[in-house]
Amino acid sequence: MNKIAKPVMSTGKGTHQAAFDEWQQNYHALIGEDKPVRNRSGIKVEPLYWPSDDPDGAYNEKLGFPGADPMTRGIYPTMHRGRTWSQRQLIGLGRPVDFNGRIKKILASGASALSIIPCNSVYRGIDCDEVEPEILGTCGTIINTEEDMDICLADIPIDEISIGLNDPSPFTMLAQMLVVAEKRGIDWKKVTGTSNQSDYISHFVANHMFYRLSLQGARRVQLDTAAYLAEHVPNWNAFSIVGQHMQQAGATPAQAMGLTLSTAIQYAEDCKARGMDPEKFLERFTFFFDISISFFEEVAKFRAGRRIWNRLVSDRFGVTNPRAKRFKFHAQTSGCDLTRQQPLNNIARVTIQAMAGILGGLQSMHTDGYDEVLSTPTEDSAKVAVSTQNILKHEAHLCDVIDPLGGSYYVESLTDAMEVEILNVIAEIDAEGGMFKAVESGFVQEMIGASALEFQDQVDSGEQIVVGVNAFKEDEDASARPFLKRPSQVHMKQQVEQLKKIKAARDPALLNNALQELRQAARSEDINVFAAEIDAVRAGATLGEIVKVLRDELGFGQPLVVA
Amino acid sequence: MQDQTAEKPGLLARLLAGQTAALARAISIVERDGPTVSALLKAIQPHLGRAIVVGFTGPPGAGKSTLVNAFIGEMRGRGRTVAVAAVDPSSPITGGAVLGDRIRMAEHTMDAGVFIRSLASRGHLGGLSASAARVADLMDAAGFDVIVLETVGAGQSEVEMAEMADVRIVISAPGLGDDVQAIKAGILEIADILVVNKSDLPLAKRTVGQLQAMLALRAPGDWKVPVLATNAVDRTGLCELADAVDHRAATRKMKGPRDALGGRTRRLLAQSVAKYAEHRVLNDTCATIDAVVSDLQQAGIGLDDAITKVLMRLCESQDNG
Amino acid sequence: MNDVLLAPARVLVTKIGLDGHDRGSRIIAAYLRDAGMEVIYTNPWQAIDAVVALALEEDVDVIGISSLATDHLLVPKLMVALDAAGLGHVRVVVGGIVPDEDEANLLAAGVSKVFHPGAVREDIVTEVERLAIAASNERPLD
Question: CB–CB of A548/A125 below 8 Å?
Fold first, then answer.
């Protein structure tokens, strides 16, 4: 430990005041008009950063060593030099059998975890036989039944691979997967993974497609599910708190981080109120963020968020368990920065975004296909996205040093400034009575809407240059763009027929009884809804049937539209 | 296109038959103030006075649109048809508006017995739009049983709604800060029914009590203003609200000819006269008016005299013209 | 024929199908409002029939459909339904992620314009205003 050199940042400015003054003079003489620069979070960015006046002691307090409080430099002692991040590519197309074929290829090409993206109709909680056929299976896999899930995961060792499910409340895909595991004789205690879309607050605010049940209803189901999993599937992360939707909806990086942490505070308080132990349940909290192309800002966002969360859980929840203070996060490169114009440029953008995430210390990552802004990603673009991660990992040697940007005058200063901004947002939400109330009243939606409009104005005015959009434009040959393969209408028809067959083959008495039990569970405060849901899946209930019962009893998820 | 219009019955006939498309088009004609407005309004005059016009006003955040939504549901349950004119503010700078009231009424979109029209205030003060009175008349003529006017709800005195509606509902919600104070200052006087919405909130009972205490201070009239607690989400108190609306409408009708209809007509007349005078004063090239302006500018004449002179001049020229 | 509008243009900004991302539709609503238009704004997931009912009751000039996923594939059905309801004069624009081969289909189905990511405020506002004038001129007088 003592061998690590004294950090440069702690050298006083006083010793080189004269040299600094000289530089400043030369700078002003040469620069001409020095336009003020602000990052997306509104923080003023100076032309140069130099050793600050911080006393030496601040290093341990503000940065510390990897794995030790306040974990600014990383949540594990080894970070990427030990175990690199998981490559978690989100894919899904058409039928379960199509998904299975593609995921096997992706696992073979180096991905170390799998994620399932269902069809938009699944997100809306509707079975495929009730959806307009044109839009079926175009964005993800149709998973309505336990049989569908079984086909998705055919030949895949559920107990040996970490699984991410894009599965909003009431978590039907998780229920289906657990029943599949049960039938294969797999011990639920060996099942690991994350409910990636469990954050109903973020759906209410910024991604209405995932928003199925009313706020109150989703809160109830989430707590029941967390309690059930803690007991029966202890290695499953019930909570993934999502900043991605809010940042994509227009929140600045600082706002997105602040609002996400406020959401996490809300969930932690809810769990605590239910009698769960923060030392335990906080171990299983994970986060999910968007990585924009604002490179240094994103690095600072992640470093500041890690430090704030580490301190916050001990200050607010009295947590001492180091595992419960770790800010574990998955991140996805932002589709919002990608352009339709000159789409191959998006490979460069995704690379920069991915670097910001890696240098920010993420645990798991999805890189976008370069054609995402044109259509649902094609197989070719998904391959490039996986290769991008492999190149960064193995060719660029980004994993050799832990927190390699730590100690950069700029990055440390920016981390501090982002921390202040993020804490301001958290304080604002506290003043509104917490995240639940702040979204109920529309406060958060208005904040995000205003930021979205402001950013768009910067692009429109040319203040923010976007290559190929408002600068460096080129005439393009549209036919050179990647060709999109839509799921075949024949296949979609087959899938609908298949569902009808499965539905017809069920024991109606058993099914009705299970759905009635689910209804009872929703009505009674004392019966665990998620346990009843698993029983319903065992009895053959479909996604649509389960969601309908819960919408009837717990309320339809009607978004608060703030125009 | 021309042939089709020739074959189908005229707008008036279709409006009186209650056709949605005709009502929608008639409202647009009135809103755009086209040349046919005058004839249209004259033609529907004999068909007015059947509907109950109910005004909903209250400060932002009281849940007006959500309550209107629940009220529509309650009235539909009673077999009545409902038309709603929901007014949102226009930007004073650009004139644009985002009209979002009907988001809360989405469940009635496909119900043929419900017609909802979003109106922008277009710079009109007083909580409604300039055309609201005429829109209400068109809805009445189209045969709707209940017409709802939902005001902008800027929290000011919304007297205009008072003159147009048979039944005036003023909505407040617990925990809106000094909303009770706001009501006391302005719109308590116009209320036929006071509603404390969001009755599940902890302060609801207290707000009801405060309003009752305030009403107790007023001189007793022939209508005792009820204070109702509602929850638009689970529909608590909606039955009582609908009963109170019907009761109030009946007592006002018993008093004789529709005083609210008279109020609507009178307001329409006042607006039209003012608009006519404004147009003439601003645009006419006329020695008399020029002289009045000049006298007024040099303080040779008082404003009262100036008004009289201008009105006389306008009457003369109308006779001549 | 008028080449200006006598009253603010009325535009329905909505989303059909399954997706619920509303960043785009909110920004467009603000653009059009700031350009002096009256925007009727709705929840996502509108059924085709509901969009027709809204357009009819609100007597709009233009309908803007925002689509991030593949919900634009339903727009040809909307065009047929609008015609059947006597709303052939209403102009429809689609904005969002629309692949080129789909754009051709939408235009063939009667959509007036498809806006892609990167479209700027001025172009959107100018085009919607132009379409509103055209719709207004074709709107049956009764």
Answer: yes
Q: Which tokens sit at C117?
A: 């990511």
| C-alpha radius of gyration, chain A, whole number | 24
Distance CA A266, CA A262 (A): 6
Residue C16 has φ and ψ, to the nearest 5°, of -110, 170
Helices (H), B186-300: 204-216, 238-254, 259-283, 287-297
Q: What is the pLDDT of residue B163?
A: 76
Cα angle for residues A67, A73, A79 (degrees, 5° grid):
60
Q: What is the CATH number of the domain that holds C95?
A: 3.40.50.280
Which tokens in the block code for residue A437?
A: 């109330």
State the smallest CA–CA distance between residue B160 and chain C in angstroms: 23
- Catalogue all structural domains in chain B, each as residue range(s) with its CATH number: 43-255 (3.40.50.300), 267-315 (no CATH)
A551, amino acid identity: R
How many angstroms separate the CA atoms of A67 and A73, rounded? 8
pTM of structure: 0.83
Residues of A in contact with C21 (CB under 8 A): 207-209, 248-249
Taking residue A135's Cβ as centre, other Cβ atoms within 10 Å add up to: 23
Count of domains forming chain C: 1
* Alpha-carbon distance values, A492 to A136, A395, A485, B8, B316 (Å): 7, 42, 14, 44, 78
In a domain, residue C3? The reply is no
Burial class (CB in 10 A: 0-12, 13-18, 19+), A125: buried
Residue C4: inside a domain: no
Cβ–Cβ < 8 Å for B91, B97: yes
Window 42-81 of B: residues touching C by CB (8 A cutoff) are none
Q: Is residue C2 part of a domain?
A: no
What's the residue count for chain C? 142
What pLDDT is stored for residue A166 in this prediction? 92
Judge contact between A448 and A247, C-beta under 8 A.
no
Count of CB pairs separated by less than 8 Å, B with C: 91
Task: Verify whether the Cβ–Cβ distance C40 to B120 is below 8 Å.
Answer: no
CA geometry: angle A64, A68, A74, nearest 5 deg = 80
Determine the residue of chain C that is closest to A486 in CA distance. Answer: C70
Residue type, A31: I
- Per this entry, what is the length of chain A? 563
Chain C residues near residue B98 by CB distance under 8 angstroms = 29-30, 33, 39, 41
Cα dihedral value B137, B142, B146, B150, nearest 10 = -50
DSSP letters for A45-57: E-S--------TT
First to last CA, chain B: 38
Q: Count of H helices and E strands in chain C?
A: 5, 5
Q: Which stretch of DSSP H or E encloses residue C14?
A: strand C10-14
Amino acid identity of residue A523, one-letter, is R
Three-state SS for B168? strand
The residue range of the domain holding C133 is 10-138
**pLDDT (tens digit, 9 = 90+) per residue, A2-30?**
343 333 444 445 567 788 889 989 999 99
Q: What is the DSSP string of B171-209?
A: EE-TTSSSHHHHHHHTTGGG-SEEEE--TTSTTHHHHHH
Question: Which three-class secondary structure state does DSSP give residue B104?
Answer: helix
Residues A109-162: tens digit of each pLDDT: 777 778 888 999 999 999 999 998 888 887 789 999 999 999 999 999 999 888
Instruction: Please write the tens of the pLDDT for every residue from A183-240.
Output: 999 999 999 999 989 999 999 999 899 999 999 999 999 999 999 999 999 999 999 9
The length of chain B, given as a count of residues: 321
Structure confidence at residue B4 (pLDDT)? 42
What residues contact residue A273 under an 8 Å CB cut-off, 6+ apart? Answer: none
Q: What is the DSSP string of A475-499?
A: ---GGGSPPPPPPPHHHHHHHHHHH
- List of residues 6+ apart from B290 with CB closer than 8 A: none
